[in-house]
Amino acid sequence: MKRSQLQTRINVLMVLVGTFFLILVVQMFRLQIQNKKIALAASSTIAAQERGSIVDRNGNLLAVDLPRWTLSATPRNIRPKDRANVAAKLSQITGIPASEIIEKLEKSSPEYAPLATDLPWEVGLQIKKKFDNPNVVTVSLNPKRVYPQGKLASEILGSVWEPKGIRRGVYGVEETYDEFLRKGGTWPGMENQKPEPLPDQYRTYLPSAAGHDLILTIDRAIQFIAEDELRKGVEYFQAEKGMAVVMDPHTGEILAMATYPHPKTRQPNPVTFEPFEPGSVFKIITAAAALDSGTITTRTMFTDTGGIIVSGRDIRNWDRRAYGKVTIKEILVHSLNVEAAKISLEMGPGTFYNYLRRFGFGEKTEVDIAPEQSGVVHWPGDKLWNPLDMASNSYGQALETTVLQMTTAVAAVANGGNLVRPHALYGLVDDGNLIRYRPPLKRSRIIRKETAKALTNLLVASARIGGHDMIPGYPVAGKTGTAEIAGKHGYSLNVTNASFVGYVPAYHPKIICMVTIEKPKRSIWAERVAAPVFQHIVERTLEYLQVPPETQTARTPTDDDNN
């Protein structure tokens, strides 16, 4: 793609994204003014349960407390002859019919009459000014949590629940950082970080009146791209659900995390909470373990007969074909189950499962988007384990992982061998200062750089379509996975989870992305379902980030790549 054409596409994309968010400008400007009013004029009246605001990595507002008042009265302190006058004054300020106010005063208990909730900030101030006796008319501040971007990033943010009047975060970062957002102070592990002046790009909405806010790694534009393309893919392929994550493979910063359809309020994020059998994308891990342990090299030859018996079970390639003489390159390109099983059996349970532990399977990634599931792996020594598990695990069956866990594992290949800790927090804002979040690696050097380099070459070959890069000018290192879904009577070929995971540009990766489409009907194959959705998300994201094309293309592995 020529530079001029790329710039034109970038400009078009930015116009589209800008148009989508234009309808939010007026509301967000109002929120900005309102926040400043609260901070300057009403700091003494802020309720103890006021929550801090949340913005994305560019300072776009994602969550904020709107000041809202609850109006009540004490009927026994209002003489019957004065009730009409009180009701008239309140009606003039609130717009509530005076007759309705009088009726509530007369039918409520003498001690307490609820008159209205969710009154705007200015209305509450007018009532306080008009009625200076709280024993007659009372307005109490009860903030309302709003999300200016609508459902965008809702699975990441979570929500705020108010059981019995106590506000607390439920799911997402609202839950993980609930104590900080409510009470302020430090966060475990952050006390050693030196506070920095808050950059100007965040000062539109921060600091909030509450004084303790979050800046996320999420990019609103990339989140919109991921949700938009995921929606298109799920609807076109008539699938039940889709999941996607876009992450920086070097730092673990989550740029976008999407699910379609959006889960209902107060439900866990499927990307972190719903384990599934990943299928052939897991062959990346099998290949990494075999190459890194020295069990095979890129030149090791196998004879694929199309079938193998393990513990009495017949394992076949997905297309039931036999491919004859093959190397690990052909095993990945053609996604050969039989040879992947042979490789795992040759490694043996000690080596194979040691690498699964290194890559983080069977344990939580420790992401800060609550809650998270660890996935399921049957380890050697478990009552239900036998060699068939190891053979099946090699191509992503008989174990479960989440989309985020699988993405994080492959990110270790992309970044040269380090297992990162995925996270959505960029930094905390406390007392007007920024405290950057710099999480340590979860594990360093789980595979050698040479292994990662050789495997990247193999994955570039695996992801090419008809000898060409999936995204022109940007070599993709990736792998498809069409996982049959187990039912009451075993696996059904007609019901699948279609996945694609890859990093781009392959040799200097800026992003890693995984897409999983659950139970597609138009086609069951990942290369036709998940790969195009991945392609569209990544292509638009690269344009938005203005990542230049990578001139280096896929090459045949050489002796230098042997392990």
Question: What features would you describe in this structure?
Answer:
- This protein has 563 residues and is an alpha+beta fold.
- Among the domains are: 3-62 and 147-217, Penicillin-binding protein 2a (Domain 2) (Alpha-Beta Complex); 69-142, Alpha-Beta Plaits, CATH 3.30.70.2110.
- It contains 17 helices and 21 strands.
- It has helices at 3-22, 25-41, 83-94, 98-107, 121-130, 154-157, 172-176, 178-183, 220-236, 270-273, 283-293, 328-333, 337-358, 387-393, 403-414, 449-463, 526-545, and strands spanning 54-55, 61-66, 69-73, 113-119, 137-141, 144-146, 159-161, 168-170, 196-197, 212-216, 241-247, 254-260, 302-304, 307-310, 313-316, 324-326, 425-430, 433-436, 477-487, 490-504, 511-518.
- A 7-stranded mixed β-sheet has the order 6-2-1-10-17-18-9. It has a 5-stranded antiparallel β-sheet with strand order 12-11-21-20-19, with helices on both faces.
- Strand 17 and strand 18 form a beta hairpin.
- Helix 3 packs across helix 4 (98-107) and helix 13 packs across helix 14.
- The longest helix has 22 residues, at 337-358.
